Amino acid sequence: IPSVSHIVPESCLLIVVGLLVGGLIKGVGEKPPILKSDIFFLFLLPPIILDAGYFLPLRPFTENLGTILIFAVVGTLWNAFFLGGLMYAVCQLGGPGLNHIGLLANLLFGSIISAVDPVAVLAVFEEIHINELLHILVFGESLLNDAVTVVLYHLFEEFASFEQVTILDIILGFLSFFVVSLGGVLVGVIYGVIAAFTSRFTSRIRVIEPLFVFLYSYMAYLSAELFHLSGIMALIAAGVVMRPYVEANISHKSHTTIKYFLKMWSSVSETLIFIFLGVSTVAGHHYWNWTFVISTLFFCLIARVLGVLVLTWFINKFRIVKLTPKDQFIIAYGGLRGAIAFSLGYLLDYEHFSMRDMFLTAIITVIFFTVFVQGMTIRPLVDLLAVKKKQETKRSINEEIHTQFLDHLLTGIEDICGHYGHHHWKDKLNRFNKKYVKKCLIAGERSKEPQLIAFYHKMEMKQAIELVESGGIGKIPSAVSTVSIQNINPQTLPLERVIPALSKDKEEEIRKILRTNLQKTRQRLRSYNRHTLVADPYEEAWNQMLLRRQKARQLEQKMNNYLTVPAHRVDSPTMSRARIGSDPLAYEPKEDSENLPIITIDPASPQSPESVDLMSEEPKGCSGLPPSPEEDEEGLVMRVKEPSSPGTDEVFTPGTSDSPSNQRMLRCLSDPGPRPEPEEGEPFIPKGQ
What we know:
By secondary structure, the protein is mainly alpha-helical. Among the domains are: about 35-275 and about 280-385, Na+/H+ antiporter like fold (Up-down Bundle), CATH 1.20.1530; about 400-460, no CATH class. It has helices at about 1-5, 10-30, 35-55, 60-65, 65-95, 105-115, 120-130, 130-145, 145-160, 165-200, 210-225, 230-250, 250-285, 290-315, 325-335, 340-345, 355-385, 395-415, 420-440, 450-470, 480-490, 505-515, 520-525, 535-565, 575-580, 630-635, 660-670. Helix 10 (about 165-200) runs antiparallel to helix 11 (about 210-225). The longest helix is centred in the N-terminal third of the chain and has 33 residues, at about 165-200. The N and C termini lie far apart (about 110 Å). Mean pLDDT is about 75; it is low at about 475-495, about 520-525, about 605-625, about 630-635, about 645-655 and about 680-685. One of its GO terms (molecular function) is potassium:proton antiporter activity.
């Protein structure tokens, strides 16, 4: 019935099925089975956590790790102590049935009920297709708060058996949090590395490759639980560490087997958990206390909302992408409780906790409220608030290349600024991984990553084999490529060739190969850092040349100020013709000067140029040839000044304008009369030339 499953989440339907099955068994007169904690923690929970850890979206998880840790650690501690303290006050004021419940028992109850459940979150959030940021924040919190829950649960359980709790016990309990969380991560990393190293040698026995992934992951979980460490943290660490190396070693069929077996295994476990929750609700012993149950439910919601609001106000001071009020509402509303809380409550001992049945009743009430009410209403609320949904389409290769390019760019900016952010450390980790770790954990040539070429050869050979099997071609040597085959016998190919569509797995493999081989400029370039910048020799030589030019100009200007007759400004052609016409003898060349040009200007000619660039004139007669009669009639002959060759120094390379003849011509055409004070920036003629 699609309309029902669209409104009601699958987890709610499974609980209803469990309730019906439990009621049917009880109606027949048999005793319904109860979800025992050993079965839950040893067999049903690990597949769900391994599936979540192995296929964890690593990029959004690492980018939001600080926010996730604050919600998981600080938020869970706040929920546990706030709820435990208020429930203790309720017990003291609640009448004769609650007076005997002490502070430690209430704190233990608060630690059990405060943790967000990963199974319930996965079941609900994957159906509403919420955007990646909100999904990873709530789901990451539900995964990482396991360490806090384990520590608080064992801590208060131990304290309940003590006659007196000292300050040393509290300090040791605080330190045990770091031991449990970091110890679980360390166990997971060790088993992940062992699994990756083992997969290096399985090339001849591909059948058992998936077995090693499941075996080492389960061993990591059991080893962590054996020493009272966080088994969930160990499973997540093992899955995250082993996946890139295992997938590089195993075959594509083994990868498909791991993927679908994990999905199937986690789906079966999830189904069994929710059905058993319903059956256990019918079968278990219950003690209903209205005050305790309603207070628990109310304070759970209040603690969650206050914790999210206060922590988000603090987190937004450091986040670039702020969490909006809509995001805060979804995070607070998505704090679902589930089977982990029920199993921890079921583990309580009757000797120390006589109120166990009342605790279990309150826990089941909170689970049902969060899963049914919040799980069923979160989808219409997401639509009502217009919260951004998850993108169903995969990112294109172009987007992935630009994402990598921006990563390299931000890493370079951080290096130049000297700010060591997460881009810097991620790049350092990638370099260390490629230089040392991959060579040890990835087999043979695959560690050097010539995957694109190898994949091309593989596809080319496959195409050649298909071409041969299709018939029409005789024996073809194996070294001949498909291109040469088509050149030899083009007529054998069909006219309308159907291009087979790529399967999703093959397309994902091509994407993965392109993603890992394209845009790796950062790895090829020499590392750069503002503290180890090397001076460029060309830049230094260029600076020296500029300094020499500047000094030469300053020296020339000083010499010209003392040794030269100041030159007059060049007059307009009209003034020049008037002066020559009034006193032509003053401008006749001297007899001893052979190199001076003979300038013939017709004063009556109205077609003379408006301005004359004396610097670009070439004097007639300097080439050693007699001037032609045409040139005599034309007067001044204008020549195009050739551009200087690139790389020449204009200060030290003498040009045509610096020749003695040109400077004499300038002196001849200028007014020889001295001026009172030379102005700055005017040209001067050296006296000795």
